[in-house]
Amino acid sequence: MTVEIGNFIGGKWVKPASGKYGESLNPACTTDVVARYPLSGREDVDRAVEASRKAYAGWRLTPAPRRGEILFRAAEMLLGRKDELGKLVTREMGKVLPEGLGDVQEAVDLAYYMAGEGRRLIGETTPSELPDKDCKSIRVPHGVFALITPWNFPIAIPSWKIFSALICGNTAVFKPSSDAPLCAVRLVEILEEAGLPPGVLNLVAGEGELVGESLVQHDGIDGISFTGSCAVGEKLESLAARRHRPIAVEMGGKNAIMIMDDADLDLALEGVLWGGFGTAGQRCTAASRIVVHEGVHDRFLEMLVNAARRLSLGDGLKKETDVGPLINERGLKKVLDYIRIGREEGAYLQIGGGRAAEGTLAEGYFVEPTIFSRVSPEMRIAQEEIFGPVVSVIRCCSFEEGVRLVNGTRFGLSASIYTGNANLAAKAEREIETGLVYINASTIGAEIQLPFGGFKHSGSGHPEVGGRMGAIDFFSRIKTIYRDYSGRLQKAQIEVP
Length: 497
Prior knowledge:
The protein is an alpha/beta fold. It folds into two domains: 3-251 and 459-482, 3-Layer(aba) Sandwich (Aldehyde Dehydrogenase, Chain A, domain 1); 255-439, Aldehyde Dehydrogenase, Chain A, domain 2 (3-Layer(aba) Sandwich). The chain has helices at residues 42-59, 64-80, 82-93, 97-117, 156-167, 181-193, 208-216, 230-242, 265-277, 297-309, 329-345, 399-407, 422-431, 471-475; strands at 3-4, 7-9, 12-14, 21-26, 29-38, 124-127, 133-141, 144-148, 171-175, 201-203, 223-227, 247-250, 255-259, 287-293, 348-351, 370-373, 390-396, 411-412, 414-418, 436-439, 455-456, 476-484.
């Protein structure tokens, strides 16, 4: 069944000014039109920003614990509708159902967590160097945020941004991906039902180049949070800098799993399969490079190829499916182009390499799980983000060389090492140049109570998840207050004669 959705502006669902709509397709079966979404323009953005600014005056003065109560109710509703929403995630963006349910669970967890932050939002009090004077810092909101999200976590990633922005007292205009707009609508509906006042959160759907850039350049926007491609993120950083607006961007990755010669290979195999082929490789934290010590390289490669042959492609709603489709035709073409490039560069194709189009798979955007060996670190398939089920296996002769290979890209989001040596694990924590490091686990598996963000070209260094060191620090700003009750002029750092 196809659903026609609207924009959510000032507490009402409204049609786009253009009167035009796009279509969100089920990537496992492209004849299944999931939703018709608004093709919005600048007029819609203007209305949404105006509604956010109007609502900000009251929302920032709403006590933070009361804001938290709304998020707590939203968490309860998300939990009660987890099965329904998980199936929608799978239908609209393709990931297998256990992952779709996990997408919703992450939003549940974050809603509970940020609800609790409403009773913290901790500042500091410190002693003054002068008598009869006290000093403190408090957290205050920025104002109106533009929140721009991708399709691969269509409920989880919006929850990172929305819940964090709202608990700090900001209002927001939310621009979801055109590939998963119905998931975004269902999330906003839950917040509305939980009691969020009109205008505090507004949703404007449409194409990113028009709606996203209009938001970032709007005079009424006070901060920006973006998750998506490097090309778009870097452009938005430039636009935000010209307007002196804070921006957090979480972009790409070329994440590596390093496997030492003392590793538990069975455990490492599970981590590589999950990291490389989970979500069909369509995660910023996907493990697309496997750096294997020469002592176990051949054995592990054989294990990996044999295991990949057993992976089942198909509709993510089917229990037997291990790997779902790519998101759309553009994603399919990009992945197939990179497979061609890898072969032309001289990498050896161990398995996969083509579009899976037999039977019902012909109805969707499926690519066979693909493994390259004999990959040298300068190859494009070892340097550039592919965003598909393509894994490159790279040989190393030592821990030191392995670390150099792991660090040898412009990205720095996630990495892992499998080893039984506690000393090597400790050195890996220190030497690997990524925002996330896993020991004897895959590159996937961040938890919401800790910051999530990358180094180098993977992001701006402003984590958006977690407590005070992550989202709260970004979505609030610090105001320092000095109160002098001495009744006379006192001068800090100035000696009284």
